[in-house]
Write a structure and sequence with these properties.
Elements: E1 3-9, E2 23-24, E3 27-28, H1 29-38, E4 45-50, H2 53-61, E5 65-68, H3 76-84, E6 91-94, H4 104-116, E7 122-128, H5 132-135, E8 142-145, E9 151-155, E10 175-184, H6 185-193, H7 198-203, H8 207-212, E11 217-221, H9 235-243
Parallel strand pairs: 1-4, 1-6, 4-5, 7-11
Antiparallel strand pairs: 2-3, 6-10, 7-10, 8-9, 8-10
Length: 247
């Protein structure tokens, strides 16, 4: 089984245009992500899927592989599907291009679960909230799973909702969804052919399209995922972590 990691990197980020090439601790942001992804032992190949020649040239100059894709893709999932078209790939891992602290071991875990259990259509990751203030923010996505670790729902709302104050079971355990996905190839091709569903349009979460069509999504628990780069203000925080040698 061949596993390919794909890093979507478009130029036109609404909150941070050109952030893939923004300097972070002396390197372009995309280079940090690429170097981390290459450390994953279960990936046979790592590609950067981009819509911009500047990003493509930069990736090639740092020894990476880039694939030019259309500029009008509505999501990173659509972009990675185009990037792997015509390539042999049984499992495709969508690695966010703005997370320079991505753990290579987590990538390996996602590939492993897909290889060991053919019943999963997808695999993703989540971590317990340590800051309950974050759990209430709509910019942070939450996930609820069943007893087998299968995703039941993703939401920007605070889920699960605690109706009554206090609980004999102790504090409510909520999980923060991390935006990394491993897809079985056939399912990825199916997802991108489907139109956005109502829930996806309401929540602005593309993974709800997968659930809508019956996806079995494994959710792996992890900790210490770090932070991503959404705006220029995030760069100093990431640099501080990297320069302390914790990145």
């Amino acid at each position: 089984m061949k596993a390919v990691g794909v890093i979507p990197a478009r130029w036109g980020s609404t909150r941070f245009p050109g952030k893939s090439l923004a300097s972070v601790a002396g390197k372009p942001l995309i280079q940090w992500v690429l170097e981390r992804a290459k450390q994953a032992e279960r990936l046979d190949e790592v590609l950067v899927a981009t819509d911009d020649a500047r990003i493509s040239r930069a990736v090639e100059s740092m020894g990476g592989k880039s694939v030019m894709t259309r500029a009008d893709h509505p999501s990173g999932t659509d972009r990675i599907a185009e990037a792997v078209a015509g390539r042999r790939a049984d499992v495709i891992v969508n690695i966010q291009g703005d997370e320079p602290l991505i753990d290579p071991a987590l990538i390996d875990r996602l590939v492993t679960v897909m290889e060991k259990d053919a019943s999963w259509d997808m695999a993703t990751a989540a971590e317990p909230f340590t800051d309950q203030v974050l759990a209430g923010q709509t910019s942070v996505v939450k996930v609820v799973c069943d007893g087998t670790g299968r995703a039941m729902y993703f939401s920007r709302a605070t889920i699960p909702f605690q109706r009554d104050a206090g609980s004999p079971a102790g504090p409510v355990r909520r999980m923060r969804h991390l935006g990394i996905y491993a897809y079985r190839r056939a399912f990825l091709e199916r997802v991108v052919k489907e139109p956005p569903c109502e829930l996806e349009q309401l929540e602005k979460l593309e993974q709800l399209r997968a659930l809508h069509i019956g996806a079995k999504i494994a959710v792996l628990e992890t900790t210490g995922s770090g932070i991503g780069v959404d705006t220029p203000e995030d760069v100093p925080r990431i640099e501080a972590i990297l320069l302390r040698g914790k990145g």
